Amino acid sequence: MASIQDIRRRIRSVKNTQQVTKAMKMISAVKLRKSQDRLVALRPYATKLHEVVERVVTRFEAGSQVPTSVLAQAFLAPREEQQIRVVVVASDKGLCGGFNANLLKAADVFYREKGSLVAHLDVVGKRASDWARKHQHPVAAEFVQIGLPDLLKVAQEIAEGATGQYARGEIDALYVVHNYFHSALSQGPKVIKVFPMAFEATPEAKPEVSHLLEPDPNSVLESLLPRFIESEVYRALIESSASEHAARMSSMDKASSNAQEMIDKLTLNMNKVRQAAITNQIIEIVSGAAS
Amino acid sequence: MDGHLLLEVVTPQRKVFSAEVSELSFPTAHRGYYGILPGHTPVMTPVGDGLITYIQNGQKLLLTVFGGFAEVGPDRVTILARESETPEMLDAAALEIARQEAQKRLKEAQDPLAIATAQADLDATGIRFQALGQTL
Q1: Given pLDDT bands bounded at 50, 70 and 90, which one contains residue A276?
Q2: Which residue from A78, A170, A243, B50 could staple onto A196, CB 3.0 to 4.6 Å apart?
Q3: Where are the domains of chain B?
Q4: Residue A209: inside a domain, yes or no?
Q5: ipTM over 0.90
Q6: Is the CB of residue A44 less than 8 Å from the CB of residue A62?
Q7: How many domains does one find in chain A?
């Protein structure tokens, strides 16, 4: 049986670990709030942009004059998928439960389906770049150690690159594999197709006002496309960041309560051992006095 | 035509501006400014870099804008900007540093891409200074 001293030492070390996990949980909670704020701040922009795109696109479906430029066609008559660009978004750091494992599993499934089409792979986060190296997927661009304020720049870079590639016929579609953020308690991997996008013709889509497109329909659609991709990719990046912190928060919470359980068990054990020692001593004294 | 326009400026980072104005103009991507009065024909157009001028309670005020998209309706104008600031959000001291840094890069830049980005950054600080100048 372990001595009281040994058990005391164990308890102390578990307590130290618990302090660390508690602190990490707190930090993640703060970071989660920051990411969530960004997500909320993006929402009005994204919704408005969606509205605008939808209005322009439905208008063309009803209208007669169809823009002819390649980029404008991306909205209306997507090409068949021959080559695609994929962005895999994971995290830089671990200790966040199944966050990365689940995501990379989803990326593997995606590769099994469409791996032969992938012409351009971007990875965001160290875990994703490790994954690509392990599976020997050639990586075109790697974004690691990106802070929250710089995510927008990453999104802009990807959007501009993808638009150019579409115009040159190098890619036909852009996919993002990321962790979507449903709430602080529920996240999960998700594959989204950023463009070409399919707009389901909503029945209540009222063709109320038809906007003039200045200077001409082609340039309007051409300048809308990168904006649209940018906001979608940016949202995916922020959602992933929020999910990461949420996942880390809940896994650190679990670790803290596990540590507490362990401390309780060890304390009980220690008290038992101490009680046994006292009982022993009493027996010794009593039997000594009796003889 | 009498009436008011609701001007809304949103960026991916935040909602920059939302208020009733009586008149405004914004830069377009294809050169020149677009002036909007209440009751304007619905228009959609890409936005360039420059200053949004609007008149609110008889006062002429400014916003910066860098790229984006404008949707104009008879009683509202929505500008989806890549970046945009109100003069209150700008800091003259930080801008001065940014300008000097951009000038330095412009001098040192060799390849055309670096020159272009440095020039663009310099132009952007110029626009921001103009927005500040109006309110100082």
Answers
A1: very high
A2: A78
A3: 5-88, 91-135
A4: no
A5: no
A6: no
A7: 1
